[in-house]
Design brief:
Elements (H helix, E strand, L loop, with lengths): L4 E5 L3 H9 L6 E7 L2 E7 L1 H5 L8 H7 L4 E4 L2 H15 L6 E4 L3 E5 L10 H14 L5 E5 L2 H10 L9 H5 L11 H9 L5 H5 L3 H8 L1 H11 L16 E10 L2 H21 L2 E12 L4 E12 L2 H4 L4 H5 L7 E13 L15 H13 L5 E5 L9 E5 L18 E8 L9 E4 L2 E14 L15 E8 L4 E7 L4 E8 L1
Parallel strand pairs: 2-4
Antiparallel strand pairs: 1-6, 1-7, 2-3, 5-6, 8-11, 9-10, 9-11, 12-13, 14-19, 15-16, 16-17, 17-18, 18-19
């Protein structure tokens, strides 16, 4: 069977991806910063019609087209989208690879007959892709190089065994040569691929190196060129089929333990840990029960994970019995290798297990911790983050004592820059016994904050005779007193 290859080129992949989510009916371009200069990275058809082109300076483009709409390019997002297209293209054949940053290559040998003929095959690809709002050009030939050349510089399908006839009239650049080599060949009058085949091979090698002949032979099939498919991500799952149905909680736990041992062994081989586990129980009446366990940290220790399943397994309805158990790690994270010594041994992980138990009841996002932040403003000196998705990094400053309880500033009566002898706060009267201060805190002018528009604040630590220890401040610009926090 003759090998057949399809090359798909998405000339406006980045802009098409953006416009699918945010349509703009105007000349549009994505810009990229290169050597301290903003240049056009990808354009839509309207921008091309205005005479703009890729690599053009942004300032020049605005001079040619004042109504040009631009956005910064997201190269990582484009690559993720291209990998999504790889998964979609596997509907046509299992052997799909990536060609550069904006193309795919498919080995469709043995798959074309499912669509009657090659023309119908390519028409179906074009119809589905263009319906999704993505521009595409395609080429089909016996080799990867010939298919690429047709997709980028030609049009149509190369007949089997006739690659040279299909690409002979195409320019030299269709052989995937660099621009410097193409310019050198054109200066010698070699403008088409057919012109290159007429030259002695020894002369080409001596003057331009082996890469020119290599690309030519790959396009004509004299040299093989493999297609490296994108590997599917590993699936972490284990299944247990039971000859006799079970229904007792102890039996389900025993089966789950066997599955956990198999699954964790594979996780250790890949140096990853499970974040979300799904236990699927199939009953004899074909009904299913699912138990999802979200872990506070990546784990691969069966002894620690099994007790966390106890609550979920205790609430299942076994019906007439369970005949299949399947455990899947639906979300995994890489675990860094840690050196264990006599000073830093293994942690027991009791806190993570507790967070997992609480989080599976109220949600892991609702179990939060305070993290120190680099700011001298009391309200900005900490951030709140879920415990399961953050680490206790950083250290809290000890140079100034701060109250544990902090609330919105509450105005109180007082005159002068020294705390009053008696204050009325929250419908209670207090007599001031001892004061410490002031500590002047200035606002962060580079971060706008409406609460600090009054300017600097003079903070005082006030101990009352009634036992309350308050944190108060005075605003000199607009003379007023406020209570901001309370010490334990």
């Amino acid at each position: 069977m003759q090998k057949r290859v399809v090359s798909l080129w998405f000339p406006r992949l980045a802009s098409d991806r953006f416009l699918r989510a945010w349509p703009i009916d105007a000349p549009f371009a994505l810009i990229e910063r290169q050597n301290n200069t903003e240049r056009l990275y990808c354009l839509n058809q309207l921008a091309t019609n205005e005479g703009l082109h890729v690599g053009m300076g942004y300032a020049d483009a605005r001079a040619f087209c004042p109504n040009l709409q631009t956005r910064p390019v997201d190269i990582e997002g484009d690559q993720r989208f291209l990998h999504t297209l790889v998964k979609w293209a596997k509907r046509y054949c299992p052997w799909v690879g990536i060609e550069g940053v904006d193309g795919l290559v498919l080995n469709v040998t043995g798959s074309v007959h499912l669509y009657q003929n090659e023309v119908t095959f390519l028409n179906d690809i074009h119809w589905r892709i263009e319906r999704a709002g993505i521009s595409v050009r395609s080429g089909m030939a016996d080799t990867r190089g010939a298919a690429w050349a047709i997709a980028h510089y030609g049009k149509g399908i190369a007949t089997e065994g006739q690659s040279l006839n299909a690409i002979g009239a195409l320019p030299i650049a269709a052989l995937r040569l660099d621009s410097k080599t193409c310019i050198s060949l054109q200066r010698l009058g070699i403008r088409k691929i057919l012109d290159l085949t007429a030259l002695p091979r020894s002369t080409i090698t001596r003057r331009f190196g082996a890469v020119v002949l290599l690309r030519l032979d790959q396009a004509l099939g004299a040299q093989p060129e493999d297609i490296s498919p994108i590997e599917d991500p590993p699936r972490y799952q284990a299944r247990l089929n039971l000859p006799d149905p079970i229904g007792l909680e102890a039996d389900v736990l025993a089966g789950t333990e066997r599955l956990l041992t198999q699954l964790c062994d594979r996780l250790k081989q890949q140096e990853v840990g499970a974040r979300v586990l799904s236990l699927n129980l199939r009953r004899v009446d074909r009904g299913t029960q699912q138990i999802e366990l979200r872990l506070a940290c990546p784990m691969r220790d069966p002894a620690r994970i099994l007790p966390l399943f106890t609550r979920g397994i205790g609430g299942i309805d076994a019906g007439f019995g369970i005949d299949q158990l399947r455990l899947i790690a639906t979300q995994v994270e890489r675990l860094a290798t840690k050196q264990i010594s006599h000073t830093t041994g293994k942690t027991n992980g009791h806190l993570d297990d507790l967070i997992t138990r609480i989080g599976n009841r109220i949600g892991l996002e609702n179990v939060q911790r305070l993290l120190p932040a680099d700011s001298h403003i009391p309200e900005h000196s900490f951030t709140i983050a879920p415990v399961a998705y953050s680490e206790a990094d950083g250290s809290w400053g000890r140079d100034r004592e701060r109250p544990i309880q902090l609330f919105n500033p509450e105005r109180i009566q007082g005159t002068g820059s020294i705390p009053p002898k008696s204050i009325r706060w929250r419908r209670m009267y207090f007599t001031v016994g001892h004061i410490t201060g002031p500590e002047r805190i200035a606002p962060e002018w580079w971060l706008p904050d409406e609460n600090w528009q009054s300017g600097v604040r003079d903070y005082w630590k006030v101990e009352t005779n009634e036992g309350r220890r308050l944190w108060m401040f005075y605003t000199p610009q607009n003379p007023s007193w406020f209570v901001h926090g309370e010490f334990p």
